[in-house]
């Protein structure tokens, strides 16, 4: 037998505060309930969240679409600034905006927060942000977990992840099978860096010695405020496009990790190439700041960050004007990014076309022209 301690060891002595967890639940409860629709069954606090899907009986062949993701090292910015009520928008954007790419309508979302120490107000802020974003995209936040991991995660640190499920009619699935030569690429503007490439951005700032409190005239705010700008939520605009009789959406691509070309290539069929004109938009100042501050090559920048394009709709040429108008009605900019053509195998202006990305043996993307900066 080993020596016994002088005093009994409790769960709290081990670093887990169950009472703090309960307080966090009380603080977040109203926000979570605010996302619940009439389809939610069982309310708040059960072992499992439930949603009534009896409406699916009207589908001919309903397919469930699911996605899971986190927000990466952007959480380090939120922690450094002690601002936690926006990171939830990033989480929902990374998850729900992925399932809408195939044409799916969200049915539910769940979240997971791991932290070294449960601070009820901080956890409640994170969940309130998630709930607010869920309300925007129409996805009930059905449940989640806040896990306290003392000794594994530092007390002031946390990570967040989420998963979403949606439904789409089998014969309405969007993707490469619908894309045709002559289709037009309609870009939807990003709100900023969104939630990808923050390891690069943080490294650039570290080497340059820039603090998050530094005010940058070109940005009109501090570095930290710019980096915390929430990811734009595209699901409402995309669903409106799907429902618009004047628009025939063939595919969407969500521009996340890997940049525009790598993600666009995933939704193109073999034999077709998307010609993208870099000069068709002005790269927002935050990306130019990263490039200049770190002397980051354009090739590395465009393969890491979204450079101002957050979502792309692939539509027939005859739907382009209606698509532009519908997206702009949601309050953000939209423009024609390029066109889809037969792939002749020719390289782009600065090298081979991008193809075979993310494990998908699909189409190709050629980038041409020079980026415009403000």
From TrEMBL:
Catalysed reactions listed for this entry: 2-formamido-N(1)-(5-O-phospho-beta-D-ribosyl)acetamidine + ATP = 5-amino-1-(5-phospho-beta-D-ribosyl)imidazole + ADP + phosphate + H(+)
* EC number, UniProt record: 6.3.3.1
Every PurM-like C-terminal domain range: 180-344
Report the InterPro entries cross-referenced here: PurM-like_C_dom (IPR010918), PurM-like_C_sf (IPR036676), PurM-like_N (IPR016188), PurM-like_N_sf (IPR036921), PurM_cligase (IPR004733)
Primary location recorded for the protein, binned into one broad class: cytoplasm
One Gene Ontology BP term is: adenine biosynthetic process
Any idea where this protein resides? Cytoplasm
Q: Which UniProt keywords apply?
A: ATP-binding, Cytoplasm, Ligase, Nucleotide-binding, Purine biosynthesis
Pathway the protein acts in:
Purine metabolism; IMP biosynthesis via de novo pathway; 5-amino-1-(5-phospho-D-ribosyl)imidazole from N(2)-formyl-N(1)-(5-phospho-D-ribosyl)glycinamide: step 2/2
**CDD domains (alphabetical):** PurM (cd02196)
**Gene3D superfamilies, alphabetized:** PurM-like C-terminal domain (3.90.650.10), PurM-like, N-terminal domain (3.30.1330.10)
Q: Where is the PurM-like N-terminal domain?
A: 64-168
The record's GO CC annotations read:
cytosol
Q: Name one GO molecular function term.
A: phosphoribosylformylglycinamidine cyclo-ligase activity
PANTHER family given for it?
TRIFUNCTIONAL PURINE BIOSYNTHETIC PROTEIN ADENOSINE-3 (PTHR10520:SF12), TRIFUNCTIONAL PURINE BIOSYNTHETIC PROTEIN ADENOSINE-3-RELATED (PTHR10520)
Question: Per its UniProt record, what HAMAP family does this chain match?
Answer: AIRS
Family of this protein: Belongs to the AIR synthase family.
Put simply, this protein is called Phosphoribosylformylglycinamidine cyclo-ligase
């Amino acid at each position: 037998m080993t020596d016994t301690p002088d005093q009994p060891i409790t769960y709290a002595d081990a670093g887990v505060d169950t009472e703090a967890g309960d307080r966090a639940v009380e603080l977040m409860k109203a926000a979570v309930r605010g996302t619940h629709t009439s389809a939610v069954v069982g309310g708040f606090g059960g072992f499992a969240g439930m949603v009534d899907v009896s409406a699916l009986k009207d589908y001919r062949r309903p397919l469930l679409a699911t996605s899971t993701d986190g927000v990466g090292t952007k959480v380090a910015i939120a922690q450094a600034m002690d601002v936690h009520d926006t990171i939830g928008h990033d989480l929902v954007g990374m998850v729900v905006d992925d399932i809408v790419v195939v044409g799916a309508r969200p049915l539910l979302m769940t979240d997971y927060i791991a932290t070294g120490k449960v601070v009820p107000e901080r956890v409640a802020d994170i969940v309130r942000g998630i709930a607010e974003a869920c309300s925007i995209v129409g996805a009930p936040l059905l449940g989640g977990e806040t896990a306290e991991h003392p000794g594994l995660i530092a007390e002031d640190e946390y990570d967040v992840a989420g998963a979403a499920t949606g439904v789409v009619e089998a014969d309405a699935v969007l993707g490469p099978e619908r894309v045709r030569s002559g289709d037009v690429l309609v870009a939807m503007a990003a709100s900023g860096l969104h939630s990808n490439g923050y390891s690069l951005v943080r490294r650039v700032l570290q080497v340059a010695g820039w603090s998050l409190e530094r005010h940058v005239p070109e940005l009109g705010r501090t570095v930290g405020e710019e980096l915390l700008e929430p990811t734009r939520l595209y699901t409402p605009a995309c669903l409106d496009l799907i429902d618009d009789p004047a628009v025939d959406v063939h595919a969407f691509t969500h521009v996340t990790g890997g940049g525009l070309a790598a993600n666009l290539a995933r939704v193109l069929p073999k034999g077709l190439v998307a010609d993208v004109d870099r000069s068709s938009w002005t790269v927002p100042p935050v990306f130019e700041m990263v490039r200049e501050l770190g002397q980051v090559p354009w090739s590395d920048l465009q393969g890491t960050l979204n450079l101002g394009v957050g979502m792309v709709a692939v539509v027939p040429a005859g739907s382009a004007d209606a698509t532009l108008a519908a997206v702009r009605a949601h309050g953000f900019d939209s423009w024609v990014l390029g066109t889809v053509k037969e792939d002749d195998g020719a390289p782009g202006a600065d090298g081979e076309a991008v193809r075979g990305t993310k494990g998908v043996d699909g189409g190709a993307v050629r980038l041409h022209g020079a980026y415009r900066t403000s």
